[in-house]
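User: Can you recover a sequence for this backbone? Please restate the input before giving your answer.

Assistant: Of course. Working from this structure:
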């Protein structure tokens, strides 16, 4: 695309080019639509005010695409389709760049990379930051059985297309990683996908009054309206079947 023509060489000292190295943080961040998120790219080996910074992104199953080009003189060149709520900045004293995304939308879900290109053909990349935009379908998940001192909660998601989906668990407002087991996405005879996710918690925590919820992210989901579970069984999400996506 035309914006890629703006990838300029990084100035070095004297006749020898000194290449920058980048370190991004955080590695992953979850955010709800409407919030603001800031991605950091720290610079080493050169001063930040000598760097022409590029930001690109890659969504799951898609090719990398340009986000914007941030020149040494602080001018900004956004790629076609990138709105002004994507705001780059530079903190030269702390040798870092920021990419701030305001009023986050579901289409902002992607992996973002800071990137520099040199005339010698050398490329320098950050490790990437995964921005996970959540459409929250939350409900008090019910337990199957409390046995041997543990409670297992089940979240069933079915009828979605394409097959890329995120399923997370939360205890109150905190995302849970321990005790989570998510099965493989399965393709059904109707050409839609399904997946099951399980959260195992100690029985004493289950009885403590904490609220457990299953959070589902998929491109076919509409507005963030809560889905109430069947109190007699596991949480079930039947997602709309949207063909025509690649």
């Amino acid at each position: 695309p035309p914006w890629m023509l703006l990838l300029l060489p990084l100035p070095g000292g004297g006749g020898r080019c000194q290449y920058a190295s980048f370190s991004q943080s955080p590695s992953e961040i979850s955010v709800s639509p409407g919030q603001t998120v800031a991605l950091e790219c720290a610079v080493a080996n050169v001063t930040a005010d000598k760097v022409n910074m590029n930001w690109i992104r890659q969504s799951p199953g898609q090719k990398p695409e340009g986000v914007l080009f941030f020149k040494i003189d602080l001018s900004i060149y956004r790629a076609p389709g990138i709105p002004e709520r994507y705001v780059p900045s530079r903190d030269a004293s702390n040798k870092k760049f920021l990419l701030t995304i305001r009023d986050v939308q579901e289409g902002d879900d992607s992996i973002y990379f800071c990137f520099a290109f040199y005339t010698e053909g050398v490329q320098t990349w950050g490790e990437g930051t995964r921005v996970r935009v959540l459409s929250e379908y939350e409900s008090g998940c019910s337990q199957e059985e409390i046995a041997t001192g543990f409670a297992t909660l089940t979240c069933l998601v079915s009828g979605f297309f394409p097959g890329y989906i995120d399923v997370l668990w939360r205890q109150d407002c905190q995302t849970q990683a321990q005790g989570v087991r998510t099965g493989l996405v399965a393709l059904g005879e109707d050409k839609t996908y399904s997946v099951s996710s399980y959260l195992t918690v100690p029985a004493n925590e289950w009885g403590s009054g904490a609220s457990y919820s299953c959070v589902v992210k998929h491109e076919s989901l509409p507005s963030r309206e809560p889905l109430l579970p069947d109190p007699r069984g596991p949480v079930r999400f039947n997602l709309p079947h949207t063909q025509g996506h690649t």
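That completes the design. The first strand starts at residue 21 and ends at 25.
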